[in-house]
């Protein structure tokens, strides 16, 4: 009987902790797609100045939707007015991504942009999804 009660309490604590972790994200990133690439199950949050450099933190699944095209896929993220940063996936696979982007000269991130693209090589322009822009509601 004691083991059953301990098991129920442990399960309840795990469910509570996972619910708290899920609630910590500010919002959902809608599915982004382009020919051959898709970013799905995306979430983001703006960290406060004292946490993770005040970064724009994001996660999701990057999918190569055309395994036979011979091209890789990537996510582009930009914060403030800085250059785009690329996060590559794997050809013919789906990968989970979780990254943080921030401006080292600021205490927190105010503005971030994200999009997904298919890398078509150096001779052809890459095709990308629409760009989503997020603004930190707390700043």
Q: In a nutshell, what does this entry contain?
A:
This protein has one helix at residues 2-23; strands spanning 27-29, 32-34, 37-46, 56-64, 72-79, 85-88, 94-101, 111-119, 127-128, 132-135. With 139 residues, the protein is an alpha+beta fold.
Tell me the helix content: 10-25%
What is the SS-derived class? alpha+beta
Cα end-to-end separation = 52 Å
Main sheet specs:
5 strands, antiparallel
Q: What shape does the CA trace take?
A: elongated
Rounded radius of gyration (Å): 18 Å
Number of helical elements? 1
The share of residues in extended strands comes to 35-45%
Q: What's the number of extended β-strand segments?
A: 10
Global mean pLDDT: 86
The secondary-structure element order is HEEEEEEEEEE
Q: Which stretches of 5+ consecutive residues score pLDDT under 50?
A: 15-23
What is the subunit organization of this protein? single chain
Provide tags for this entry.
139 residues, alpha+beta, five-stranded antiparallel beta sheet, 1 helix
Secondary structure elements and pairings:
Elements: H1 2-23, E1 27-29, E2 32-34, E3 37-46, E4 56-64, E5 72-79, E6 85-88, E7 94-101, E8 111-119, E9 127-128, E10 132-135
Antiparallel strand pairs: 1-3, 2-3, 3-4, 4-7, 5-6, 5-8, 8-9, 8-10
Describe the protein's architecture and organization.
The chain has one helix spanning 2-23; strands spanning 27-29, 32-34, 37-46, 56-64, 72-79, 85-88, 94-101, 111-119, 127-128, 132-135. It is α+β, with helices and mostly antiparallel strands and 139 residues long. Strands 1, 2, 3, 4 and 7 form a five-stranded antiparallel β-sheet that branches. 16% of the residues lie in helices and 43% in strands. A hairpin with a 5-residue loop joins strand 5 and strand 6.
